[in-house]
């Protein structure tokens, strides 16, 4: 399995876990593993970015948010901003909050990093 496929599988596994537990911090083992894979494969960043842009269809929002807070890739942020604007323009009030929450995760002072995911981000010495 390629590193990209591994991250995609971790996203799917996180979705399966959260569909049973409904507890946001339960995503951390999956995101921790994904982040480690991504950090070990920096040359694959464009492919990882593309995978994250496809994740709204199958990954739990928490998975995308934690990973995007860790990496804060500008290309992904710009695309999520465009998707959020498009959702507002279409009055798609199901998609808008998803993208808004994704975008909040890019912020250095993202509240969830200090709350739900504090154990992970504190260990990384990140806000």
Overview of the structural elements:
It is a single chain. The protein has 127 residues and is mainly alpha-helical. It has one domain. 71% of the residues lie in helices and 0% in strands. It contains eight helices and no strands. The chain starts with a helix and ends with a helix. The mean pLDDT is 94.
Key features?
127 residues; mainly alpha; 8 helices; 71% helix
Which structural class should the secondary elements be placed in? mainly alpha
Tally of separate domains: 1
Biggest sheet layout? none
Helical fraction:
over 70%
Question: What form results from the Cα inertia axes?
Answer: globular
Question: What is the rounded distance between the termini?
Answer: 32 Å
Query: Could you spell the SSE succession in H and E letters?
Result: HHHHHHHH
pLDDT < 50 runs, ≥5 residues = none
Fraction in beta strands: under 5%
